[in-house]
Amino acid sequence: MADSQESLNPKTLRRRTHSTTSTNKIDTVGVDGIEKDPTVNLDSSDEDRTNLVSNQESLLNMEDSSSLISNGEDENESGGGRIGGAGVYMYRASAPAHRRVKESPLSSDAIFRQSHAGLFNLCIVVLVAVNSRLIIENLMKYGLLIGSGFWFSSTSLRDWPLFMCCLSLPLFAVAAYMVEKLAQNKLVSEPVVISLHVLITTASILYPVCMILKFDSAVMSGVTLMLFASVVWLKLVSYAHTNYDMRALSKSSGKGDVSSNSSDTDNSDNVNIKSLAYFMVAPTLCYQTTYPRTTCIRKGWVTRQCIKLAIFTAFMAFIVEQYINPIVQNSQHPLNGDLLYAIERVLKLSVPTLYVWLCMFYCFFHLWFNILAEVLRFGDREFYKDWWNAKTVEEYWRMWNMPVHKWMVRHVYFPCLRNGIPKGVAVVIAFFVSAIFHELCIAVPCHIFKFWAFIGILFQIPLVLLTNYLQNKFQNTMVGNMVFWFFFSILGQPMCLLLYYHDVMNQRVRTP
User: Fold this and answer.
1) What does each C-alpha distance from 67 to 11, 91, 97, 222, 225 come to in angstroms?
2) pLDDT per residue over 340-355, tens digit each?
3) 160, 329, 374, 459: which one has the fewest Cβ atoms less than 10 Å from its Cβ?
4) What does the pLDDT look like over 100-130, one tens digit per residue?
């Protein structure tokens, strides 16, 4: 194909004609300036032409080589510097080396137009080398500090009620399905359906709370149960709200309301246990009767992701046991001790907590969600966006956890707007709901309610206003991104960890 295109090029035709009529005038000087054997046919093969071009381009900037060769062609056709009949020309000494205005690759005007993959690889290599040295130094100084008390209780039977509670949570989904069946068959009125769903969803979150508060279990066991219960609650709310909306759309379409037949709504009033069961295990919080599906399951890919999940989970546990636990245990309460000492403890905790948080995000949102989606052939894999580039805190909350974000938009934010609530108030309500569940997932397993997590989430509202102001004042900057990283990762998480740890320890000391 390349040969046929070359044969149609007028310049190539001229070169070939000149080559066949003037084979006795072949210049015997090569690219390196050394006289070549005139008996060697430089037009013999494509390989020779490729080697000559490679030698020539090694002398030139790749961006300008084509223009210089073209310039040489125009000059040489008038009688100079030709190498063979292939149309390849030398880089003449008289050819200009500087042809246009250019910026240095690291200048402010060109830095974002360049690829910095090599520098990124260098940062990764340096990061691995530095942290490997710190890990080896820590192991040599303190030894291996891995224990099981944080992850499992000393008596395994203490966690057994929580495990049974976790297994019984799907019964609430069955109850919600039975209510929807009654509503589909019009055996109960709409207010009764709403009341039953409120009762079911409330029981699904209060039942685990009571079990955790009643039994003295490990903190991680309680956190796991509360996370699972929160997911079940969010899914049941979406299931009830979506079916309610589909019934409303069905009634509106029956009355001839054209606006209810929108193409972006699911009007299929089809309540079946199969769709609910798939929804309860699918990596989404928004219910719909059908989902985009992939064609097959990549078993080898799933195996590789499972291996990555095991490696990063082990690394996360190692950081917690080897670094975070000793630092926290040897610290004072940040609000009762010396201010400089508290700042030093927070900054010392910031790096390991940041590593654990990033590992948690990668393991949960990328590896686990994609493994689950692959096994279930769930097609929509947008579990997160590039939140690390968020210029404001508001952008971060819209991009880092897409399942929760979509649930908030679908079942909290837009319902508030449809009921005449202003946008600002709707945002505050969404953060309020998020703050409640953050507090439940942390305070209940710790058996203490100081509302540190609740206050921390509500504190995001002024940060949203601050970063939005900075973004509007300093256009096209990452000031808001740096503010987010500082308050959320460097200051917020270590401070919250210290507060809850010392409150839990003080509570255990007071307990006889």
Assistant:
1) 15, 11, 11, 69, 67
2) 777 777 788 888 888 8
3) 329
4) 887 787 777 776 677 777 887 888 888 888 8
pLDDT band, residue 81 (cuts 50/70/90): very low
Residue 233 near residue 205, CB atoms below 8 Å: yes
Taken in order 248, 254, 255, 259, the sign of the CA dihedral is positive
For residue 113, the cross-strand partners are: none
- Within 13 A of 320's CA, how many CA atoms are on the CB side? 18
d(CA 359, CA 227): 18
Rounded Cα distance between 165 and 159, Å, is 10
Spatial contact of 74 and 20, defined as CB atoms under 8 Å apart:
no
Lowest mean pLDDT among 40-44, 163-167, 349-353: 40-44
The tokens for 149 are 């008390």
Q: Residues 183-216: pLDDT tens digits?
A: 888 888 889 999 999 999 999 999 999 888 888 7
The one catalytic residue among 197, 405, 411, 438: 438
Q: Based on the residue annotation, tell me whether 411 is a catalytic residue of this protein.
A: no
Please report, rounded to a whole number, the percentage of residues in the chain having pLDDT higher than 70. 71
The Cα 371–Cα 362 span in angstroms is 12
- The Cα–Cα gap between 169 and 225 comes to 10
Residue with tokens 């609530």: 421
Instruction: Write the CA distances from 176 to 189, 200, 225, 232, 234, integer angstroms.
Output: 15, 7, 20, 11, 13
Structure letter (DSSP) for residue 281: H
Structure tokens at 104: 């240095």
Could you tell me the two tokens for 73?
């062609």
Q: Identify whether the C-beta of residue 459 lies closer than 8 Å to the C-beta of residue 495.
A: no
Nearest-angstrom CA–CA distance, 127 and 460: 30
* Mean residue pLDDT across the chain: 76
CB 163 within 8 A of CB 211: no
